[in-house]
C-alpha cells in the first residue's frame, strides 16, 4: 500500500527537513561542503552529483508535492528542461512539442536540437488530434505546457498521457504556471513533471532554480546525463528555496484566489476587451481546466481596448510592477509582444493571438481592492 500523502501545507512545511542533531536548531542546517569523504560511505557526495544533503532533502519535498518517487533540483528551469530532453532524446529520435510554449524552451529546441541530430515537430494546436497528427515512428517524447504562456490554453493532460502510453512514448509537462498547489499531472498519468523553481517555488523573485519530479528510474536516467552536464544549484540557494517552499501552499492559494476575483472584474471592465483565464466560464477550455486542476492558478492575460496604449498603461501603474519574470508574491505585468514573442513578426504574433494590446498579469498576494485601484488609476491617466 502506498503511504497516504500528507496535506499540502504539512508537506510544504516539513517534508525534507534535515534534523539538526548536533545543536537541535529548528530549521535544516546548510551544508556547504564541496568535498565529502569517499571511504566507507553509502553515498559519494559532491555538489555536481546533485546529492549534497541539502539537495537530496529538498528533492524529497518536491517529490512529495508532485506525488512522485524522486526529484532533482537544478540551477534553472532551463537546466531542468534541457537535461530532461537530453536524457531521453538522442540522434535520430523525435520530440513532439506543443506549439504554445515558454519562449526559452522554443529557443532551446530550435537552436540546439539540429546540432545533435534530434528531430522535433511543434503541433498546430493543443487538442489531442493535433498531437496525434504529428507523431512519427521515431517519436520518443511528447512535451506539453498547461496552462500555457501567455494565453493560458489548457491541454487535456489525461488524454496526452494515454496517447503516450498507447504508443510507448514518454510524456512530460511544464507545470510551472499551475504549480503542484493547483495541478498534479502525475496523478493524470504523465511520466515527468518539470518546474522553473524561479517562479512559484521561489516565490519572492530572488532565486533562479529548476526541478524535475518523476519515477526513480527516470530520475536516475536524467542524473546520468546531469552529472556530465553540470548545472546543479548551490547549497546556499537550495536552502533559500527550502525556506521559500514552506509557504508555497499559502502563497499560491492566496494568489489564485486573487486572480479569480481580478479575472471576473477585468472581464466586466469597459476598458478591457478580453480576459484569458481558465477559471472564467467564457474560457474555451474552462470545463477541462476544472476537471484536471485543483485551482485555476494565478496567471492571467488581458487585452486593453484598442485606443489605449499598453506600454503607457504599464508605465502608469504605481503598485503593480512591469517585470520580465512572474510568480512572485508581488503583482507584475509584462507585454508578450515586447518580450517573450518580440522575435516574431507582427503577422506571426497575430497568428498565435498575441496582440500589442495583450498584457500578461502575474497576480500577487496584495489586497484585491488595491490592485483594482491601481489598474483604474493607470487607465484614467491615459486619457
Ligand atoms: C521561466 C520559465 C521557464 C524557464 O525557467 P528559468 O528558471 O528561467 O530557466 C520554463 N517554463 C516556464 C513556463 C517558465 O515560466
From TrEMBL:
Per UniProt, which keywords does this protein have? Aminotransferase, Pyridoxal phosphate, Transferase
Q: Which domain of life is it from?
A: Bacteria
Q: Which cofactor does it need?
A: pyridoxal 5'-phosphate
Q: Which GO terms describe its cellular component?
A: cytoplasm
Q: Which residues form a coiled coil?
A: none
Q: What does the entry give for GO biological process?
A: methionine biosynthetic process; transsulfuration
As one GO molecular function, the record gives: carbon-sulfur lyase activity
Under which name does UniProt file this protein?
Aminotransferase class I/II-fold pyridoxal phosphate-dependent enzyme
Q: Which organism was this protein described from?
A: Winogradskyella luteola
